[in-house]
Hints:
The protein is mainly α and 67 residues long. 67% of the residues lie in helices and 0% in strands. The protein contains 1 helix and no strands. The chain is rod-shaped and about 90 Å long. The chain starts with a helix and ends in a 20-residue tail after the last helix. The mean pLDDT is 84.
Amino acid sequence: MDVALTNSIINTATALASAKTSDAVNVAVLKQAMNMQEVAAATLLEALPQPALATSGTLGTQVNTYA
């Protein structure tokens, strides 16, 4: 068996294992960042004031679109 071929196979296998681990770490960090963004966005949306509903007139008194 050719030693160079064996070394090439070993190097390829090592690189693939390293890439798989790196990808898993990258996905975990991405999920954590997206969860933090979700919490921040929800907090910002809750902080927005609710507009007052119309009490008279023909516009906005029949359907509550914020419900």
